[in-house]
């Protein structure tokens, strides 16, 4: 069963997601220019939460959380009922909650003893990565079952699986430069979310809008 044209043509949710992703990227780039004392290769993103301009990354994390939720809700709305599942939306919601918690619970600084706040930050950060990449894999699998999305899912699913594998490489290969490796994984994840958002916006703009009387605009 296909979704109503008014649902598929609605650009609000994918537009909200695109705006949140763009805000995150802009803030992340700006922070690297505003905090030249931090080594971008060695410094994890969470170090940018501490000190000047930390609020900017906090806002960026919240914007990214909203983007994930908006994209998950939009994907649930537009796929046909046989392909629809609440599991990706739940995983994205958990990822957003973990990411928002990460934004307001600081990591332990290098050379400083462990703290409860640092423990909360570490667990939340790992949860955000794990829930987000799991959601991406599940979402791509749902899209693969929808005939209209099957061609896109052929590359969205391998990309999502690569992101899922990358977080385990990041967790297990401790010799990697932490900052650069973490940011590379984040870029892969944000890129996937951006690709899905762009696809939805492109599809929505090609579809006719549903008029109040039930007819489509020509």
Measured between the Cα atoms of the first and last residue, the distance is 23 Å
Structural category: mainly alpha
- How would the global form be characterised? globular
Instruction: Say how many strands there are.
Output: 0
Instruction: List the uncertain runs.
Output: 209-218
Compute the number of structural domains: 1
Strand content: under 5%
Largest sheet composition: none
Report the helical percentage.
Answer: 55-70%
What oligomeric state best describes the polypeptide chains here? single chain
SSE topology string: HHHHHHH
Count of individual helical segments: 7
Radius of gyration: 19 Å
The average pLDDT is: 87
Walkthrough of the structure:
This protein has 218 residues and is mainly alpha-helical. It has one domain. It has seven helices and no strands. α3 (54-78) crosses α7. The longest helix has 29 residues, at 116-144. The two termini are 23 Å apart. Residues 209-218 have low confidence and may be disordered.
How are the secondary structure elements laid out?
Blueprint: H1 5-8, H2 12-34, H3 54-78, H4 87-104, H5 116-144, H6 150-172, H7 178-206
Helix pairs in contact: 2-3, 2-7, 3-4, 3-7, 4-5, 5-6, 6-7
Q: Can you describe this structure in just a few lines?
A:
The chain is mainly α and 218 residues long. It contains seven helices and no strands.
Which tags fit this structure?
single chain, 218 residues, mainly alpha, 69% helix, globular, disordered C terminus
């Amino acid at each position: 069963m296909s979704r109503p044209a008014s649902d598929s043509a609605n650009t609000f949710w994918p537009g909200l997601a695109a705006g949140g992703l763009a805000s995150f990227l802009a803030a992340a780039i700006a922070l690297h220019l505003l905090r030249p004392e931090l080594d971008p290769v060695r410094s994890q993103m969470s170090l940018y939460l501490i000190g000047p301009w930390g609020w900017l990354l906090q806002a960026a994390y919240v914007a990214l959380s909203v983007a994930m939720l908006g994209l998950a809700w939009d994907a649930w709305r537009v796929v046909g009922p046989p392909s629809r599942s609440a599991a990706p939306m739940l995983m994205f919601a958990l990822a957003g909650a973990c990411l928002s918690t990460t934004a307001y619970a600081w990591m332990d600084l290098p050379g400083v003893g462990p703290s409860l706040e640092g423990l909360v930050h570490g667990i939340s950060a790992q949860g955000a990565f794990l829930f987000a990449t799991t959601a991406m894999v599940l979402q791509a699998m749902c899209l693969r079952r929808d005939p209209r999305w099957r061609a896109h899912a052929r590359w969205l699913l391998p990309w999502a699986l690569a992101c899922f594998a990358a977080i385990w490489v990041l967790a297990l290969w401790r010799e990697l430069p932490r900052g650069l490796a973490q940011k590379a994984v984040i870029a892969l994840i944000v890129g996937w979310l951006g690709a899905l958002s762009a696809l939805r916006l492109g599809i929505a703009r090609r579809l006719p809008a549903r008029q109040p009387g039930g007819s489509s605009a020509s």
